[in-house]
TrEMBL record:
This is Acetylornithine aminotransferase. Pyridoxal 5'-phosphate binds at G126, T127, F167, D252, E253, V254, Q255, T309. Keywords: Amino-acid biosynthesis, Aminotransferase, Arginine biosynthesis, Cytoplasm, Pyridoxal phosphate, Transferase. The gene is argD. NCBIfam families: argD, PRK03244.1. It comes from the Bacteria. GO terms for cellular component: cytoplasm. It catalyses: N(2)-acetyl-L-ornithine + 2-oxoglutarate = N-acetyl-L-glutamate 5-semialdehyde + L-glutamate.
Length: 430
């Protein structure tokens, strides 16, 4: 486990972007599509929980590539596994398999407590895992009780229910599941049949799940909506309602899975028909997965109905296996649960913080004013990477190896960061 206690102070705290970063950002502006806005910094290396920019300034990475770098940066177990696999066998088509692919699938089935007949499909990202889940739902719409069934039948049930505030990805199927109008409207028409229910309303859910519904998809904690957990009992109610209606329950653990919440999966205790994973699974190497639980869900997609060139690639699956084994070997579930609880308690005591949410090391906290974007900038100048999913909401999703000492450097700096953010906001600066 990392023993670092925090970043060295930035070379020129408060000075914004340095000259080397500036040069790269000019080149970025001339060559990269502008879908992400201007990057905050140009990062050149990382180690443990710190990263360094092109000007040599260090930052404590409290965002972890948005819940991706579970083992931090350049963890020796991950770099060794990826290097070893690339030296041995880098890629095969899906006409073949590899030991890494099989071993990771088996490991995922083990840690999810999957019943007999459960299966894994590997993709390259969260949105692709959810595309596969969308297609699974369509096939359930063809095979659900009261429909014709048969591998070639068009679905009779095409409704899929998701929640307001949901984020499931940016490709067309996953975008149809995503709620935010600003992401959806420019790309309409999206695949049809998706309805969004009010967040956390069990009665609305029960009323909506009937024989027209092929699947319900839920995030146990909505990360992009500001780390918003489903109310207690909601997942169980969804399990019961979907089972009674012959609909699939699909749980999107792309952001919450693989130890992020101090448990392997935030939905533990409720067995869905399918679960999607990505982000932390590869620890920084791109990978996604759809896990189907039990014989019935696992038989819905038949040979030829879905595919991918890179999904299940030996290097990506070797990375995934190394991440899972390292989480176990370094006891990172317990560790992240403990560090997260301490961090949340410390955040709640900071003046100007009005609410703290989340589990483990997926943390959202609200401020008493719309200064979150300015706080991101001020934090960066103070040597911390954080994120603002809303105007008054900040999010932390650091590596699971974060130490309590490193976390404390942030909570100690936060009052100053918020003061700087208030000052910048009052001058109209981001
Ligand atoms: C819950 C959830 N699902 C899906 C996605 C999409 O994953 P990706 O960006 O890897 O496509 C995200 C990404 O933030 C997510 O948080």
């Amino acid at each position: 486990m990392s023993t670092e206690t925090g970043p060295k102070p930035p070379a020129a705290a408060g000075s914004g972007v340095g000259p080397a970063d500036e040069q790269w950002l000019d080149r970025y502006a001339g060559s990269l599509m502008g879908v992400f806005g201007t990057p905050q910094r140009v990062l050149v290396r990382g180690s443990g929980c710190t990263v360094q920019d092109a000007d040599g300034r260090e930052y404590l990475d409290l965002l972890g590539g948005i819940a991706v770098n579970a083992l931090g940066h350049a963890h020796p177990a991950l770099t060794a596994a990826v290097g070893r696999q690339l030296e041995t066998l880098g890629h095969v088509s899906n006409f073949f398999t590899s030991p890494a692919q099989v071993a990771l699938a088996e490991k995922l089935l083990k840690i999810t407590g999957a019943p007999a007949g459960s299966k894994v499909f590997f993709a390259n990202s969260g949105t692709e895992a959810n595309e596969a889940a969308f297609k699974l739902a369509r096939r359930n719409g063809a095979a659900a009780p009261g429909t014709d069934g048969g591998a070639d039948a068009a679905p009779a049930r095409t409704r899929i229910l998701a929640l307001e505030g949901a984020f499931h990805g940016r490709t067309m199927g996953a975008l149809a599941l995503t709620a935010k109008a600003a992401y959806r409207t420019p790309f309409e028409p999206l695949p049809g049949g998706v309805d969004h229910l009010p967040f956390g309303d069990v009665d609305a859910l029960r009323a909506a799940v009937d024989e027209t519904v092929a699947a319900v998809i839920l995030e146990p904690i909505q990360g992009e909506a500001g780390v918003r957990p489903l109310p207690a009992g909601y997942l169980q109610a969804a399990r019961e309602a979907t089972a009674a209606a012959g609909a699939l329950l699909i749980i999107d653990e792309v952001q919450t899975g693989v130890g992020r919440t101090g448990r392997w999966f935030a939905s533990e205790g409720v067995l869905p028909d399918a679960m999607t994973l990505a982000k932390g699974l590869g620890g920084g190497f791109p990978i996604g997965a759809l896990i189907t639980f039990g014989e019935r869900a696992s038989g819905l997609l038949t040979p030829g109905q879905h595919g991918t060139t890179f999904g299940g690639n030996p290097v990506a699956t070797a990375a995934g296996l190394a991440v899972l084994e390292t989480i176990e070997a370094e006891h990172l579930l317990d560790h992240s649960a403990t560090v997260g609880a301490g961090l949340r308690a410390a955040l709640a005591a900071v003046d100007g913080v009005t609410e703290v949410r989340g589990e483990g090391l997926l943390i959202g906290f609200d401020l008493d004013a719309d200064i979150a974007p300015a706080a991101v900038t001020a934090a960066l100048d103070a040597g911390f990477i954080i994120n603002a999913p809303g105007p008054r909401t900040l999010r932390l999703a650091p590596p699971l190896i974060l130490t309590a000492e490193a976390a404390a450097t942030f909570t100690a700096a936060l009052p100053g960061i918020l003061a700087a953010a208030r000052a910048a906001s009052s001058k109209g600066q981001p």
